[in-house]
Amino acid sequence: RSKRGSGPAGLAAMPAELPFAGSVLLRPLLNTPRAQLEAWGSRHQLVWIDDESNQDDRFERNFLRLRILPALEARWPHFTEAAARSAQLCGEQEQLLDELLAPELAALMDGKTLAIAPLETMSALKRAALLRRWLAALNAPMPSRATLQRIWDEVAQSREDAAPRLKCGDYEARRYQGRLWWVRARQGQRQTVLAWPDPHVALPLPAALGWLQFGEAGDAVRPPHPGETVSVRFSASGMLYIVGRERGRTLKKLWQELQVPPWQREITPILFYDEQPICAPGLFITREGQAQNEPGWRLAWHKEHNDD
After folding, report:
1. Helix (DSSP H) and strand (DSSP E) numbers for the chain
2. Residue 285's closest CA among 187, 218, 208, 199?
3. 124-137 and 79-108 helices cross at what angle (nearest 10)?
4. Which distant-in-sequence residues (6+ apart) come within 8 Å of 133 by Cβ?
5. 181 confidence band (pLDDT: 50, 70, 90)
6. pLDDT digits over 130-165, tens only?
7. ∠168-171-177 over CA atoms, to 5°?
């Protein structure tokens, strides 16, 4: 990690105790020397497996362990202990920064988003530290220093009328309503039309968007009339007249009024009967789709990921 230019968090190395999946991951033998473990195992007649790949110095970790560290320890016998102390100090510094910045980070975050305006008044160092901790709080892969700077320059500081995005692996950094968002990258489905010949059976959605299902929970819409074809699309043309609104609106205007972020607008499913939009689950029901004098069907969108 030192060779790759890691900061204190990377140089802190492996912790002996770490929160993991709602529990705690413990490494009680982390600081026990290998020789001591081997001696104990031999004394108690234990049998263990040596991984042959550990002797292959084509791998960087093995090259350091087999060739470089022995030379360093021959010249400086306490090199390993000193390096371990340095790693421990790096970890303690990072933990202290976590504690000092935690209240400020909490004030900047709203759910999973981060306010941009307060960051603009901070030093670049403090801003970068808060951005890293925001991403860590979302369990995001830690971006490089250059990528972190691009998130700030190209996304947070882009024109107010822009819809900036920076793809980072399977996710994207986005800006919306003065806040930074970290969202799963999705391919827009504007041209997709899904036939739903049997609405009593759950309908899988493309691009790992989950599935739609009529059941006991969800939005109540009228059942399809005999002969009406049921389908799901991700766009709608013309004016939509939704329940609770007097005037019609285009879908684009409706998304804006409902504060649906731009990246969700072409991946939000819309139920159709023939060519008539009926509802977008959890968002709106059109007048043509409203259940009147008949029992309503309840449509729910089950998302595959909680960060959709």
Report:
1. 9, 16
2. 218
3. 90
4. 98, 101, 105
5. very high
6. 999 999 999 898 888 899 999 999 999 998 888 899
7. 105
